[in-house]
Structure formats: C-alpha cells, structure tokens
Design brief:
By secondary structure, the chain is of the alpha+beta class. It has 9 helices and 9 strands. The structure holds (3R)-3-hydroxy-3-methyl-5-(phosphonooxy)pentanoic acid. (3R)-3-hydroxy-3-methyl-5-(phosphonooxy)pentanoic acid binds next to helix 4 and helix 5.
Length: about 300
C-alpha cells in the first residue's frame, strides 16, 4: 500500500516578531528541523465527509483519519517559537488540498493561515508563510487580506545556535494578546519600540546583502533583545541567561512569541566560538541545537 509523506520545516524569526502583527516587516528563515506527516491509505475507504473550502484543523485531521493511517513525526521542539504549529498546519493543508489535485504554494499557505488563525487568534501569517515557502523571507502584513512576501535570493550560511530557555507557560495566542493589551495602554511607547525593531530588521536585510558588517549585525541583535524585553515578552529567567550569554561574547534574542513568567522558548544565539558556547550550555544543563538557516519549504 502506498504511503505519502509531506514535510514542512520549522522557522526562526531573525527579526520582527510581535512588530509584524502590526504591519511592520519581519525577516524569517526556514530551519533544518522538519515535521513529516505520513499517510497510508486504508483498504476500506469510508469517505463520508464532504471536502470543505475552509475546513478547521480538527476537520482535516478527522477526514484524513477516516481514510488513512496517519503518522506524524517532528523534530521541531514544540511551544518554543520554532513554528511547530505552523509546520503542522502547512502539512495538514497540503495533505487536504492534495486530495483534489496538485495545490499551489499559495493555496497551501492560505489554508494554513486559516488553520493558524483558529489557534493563535490574531497571527500575522509569518510562520505559515515561512514554513510553506522556505528559504529566507521578507514578510509584511499590509492588511488582513494582503500579506506581502519576498523570497530573498540568498543562500548565505549564517552560523547560529538555539538554546532552550524553557518552554513558556503562555501560548503564542496569550503573548500576542498581552502585547496588544499593553500597546492599547501605551501606544506611543509601543510605536517607538516597533519603529526601532523595524530598523533592526532592515539592518538584517543589509547584512544579508553584504552591506553591513557582522559586528553591526551582532550589535543589532543585542539591541533587538533589549527591545523585546521592553515589550515584556522576555521572562526574568531568560533575561538572566541573556546576560550570561553576552558576558561570554555572544549575541542573542528570543525567536517567536517569547514568554513572560517562566521560560521564553528558544534563544537564537550568535557566537564565533562554538566550543565555548557548548561548554556554557553543558554547564547550565541546557539543550543546545546548532541550526542551519535558509532551508527548503
Ligand atoms: O508562534 P511563534 O512563537 O513562532 O510566534 C510568532 C511570531 C509573532 O510575531 C509573535 C506572532 C505572529 O503571528 O507574527
């Protein structure tokens, strides 16, 4: 019996998380961690459900399970800002749309965004777009219906690492809602922070096109961390870790929604001395992952 496999990568936001929800740009990259959905057709098909235009994730999952033995394997750590839910949404959307022919990436991405919305409340769409298209992406939500996306024609190898600061107690939905509440109370402050984050995202772009030095980029990453802390999405536990990472010569930021009361998910770290960073992680008993950027969608 044939087995079909569909896989989608996780992602890291290099710059622009949270700001991207309000129409600011984000630079995002697919990573070499993937979720794979395997479908093996059951011998007795029981297709009683109709194929809907805008199904929920639960509907798709139930639909697939009626007709296939479904197996999911993922090496994307969950709830850590690496897009595990988006990779799942993209895989589900691909499987479902493939029942009616060969879907385009745009169709897959549109459905994955609908699935993400039912989980995250008001996501920007950056996660599902990165997991659908892969590579390095410049993304901006102009309007609820208009998401601009540009795939950067770049294969630059950027050495970076992920360090688990602890799974956040809050969900992405909670963190998006928290920032929205705070912003409502102090719009001026939030506008200033988001404007500065935009300028860092543009520094990243300049780095990708070899227009600024690595030193400039690493300073911008540190500044990004401070701005994310000012947004309130970095927990005291993660803040203490950042201070230590900076002390041993690294630059780091959260990647994704963050977390405020316990862990803040994965920290994205840049450090020229891999051994030094590995020793640091071992001493702290924290899981470290070397990660490759710019992976395929
Ligand atoms: O789902 P996460 O943790 O990777 O966060 C997504 C990035 C946010 O900007 C916080 C939300 C969004 O939808 O853009």
């Amino acid at each position: 019996m044939t087995t079909h496999s569909i896989s989608a990568p996780g992602k890291v936001i290099l710059s622009g998380e949270h700001a991207v929800v309000y129409g600011y740009p984000a630079l995002v990259s697919a990573v070499n961690m993937r979720l794979t959905l395997s479908l093996k057709a059951k011998s007795s098909k029981k297709t009683t459900k109709p194929i809907l235009k805008m199904p929920t994730a639960e509907y798709i999952s139930a639909y697939l399970k009626q007709n296939y033995a479904v197996n999911i394997h993922s090496d994307i750590p969950r709830g850590s800002g690496l897009g595990s839910s988006a990779a799942y949404a993209v895989s589900l959307a691909t499987a479902y749309l493939s029942l009616r022919g060969k879907p385009t990436k745009k169709h897959i991405n549109d459905l994955a965004f609908q699935l993400e919305k039912s989980h995250h409340g008001n996501p920007s769409g950056v996660d599902n777009t990165a997991c659908t298209y892969g590579g390095y992406l410049w993304f901006r939500k102009e309007h609820q219906q208009i998401h601009l996306m540009h795939q950067l024609p770049i294969t630059k190898k950027i050495q970076c690492f992920l360090l688990q600061s602890g799974q956040p107690k809050e969900t992405t939905k909670d963190m998006i809602a928290y920032v929205a509440e705070q912003r409502k109370m102090n719009p001026e402050k939030y506008k200033k922070i988001f404007d500065k984050i935009e300028s860092i995202t543009k520094t990243w772009l300049a780095y990708m096109f070899d227009e600024v030095s690595r030193h400039t980029l690493l300073e911008a990453v540190r500044e990004n961390h401070r701005l994310l802390s000012a947004l309130g999405v970095v927990s005291p536990k993660a803040s203490a870790l950042f201070a230590e990472i900076e002390k041993i010569g690294g630059s780091a930021k959260i990647t994704g929604a963050g977390g405020k009361s316990d862990g803040s998910g994965m920290l994205l770290i840049f450090h020229d001395d891999k051994e030094k960073l590995t020793k640091f992680a071992q001493k702290k008993k924290l899981k470290m992952y070397p990660v490759q950027l710019g992976e395929r969608g």
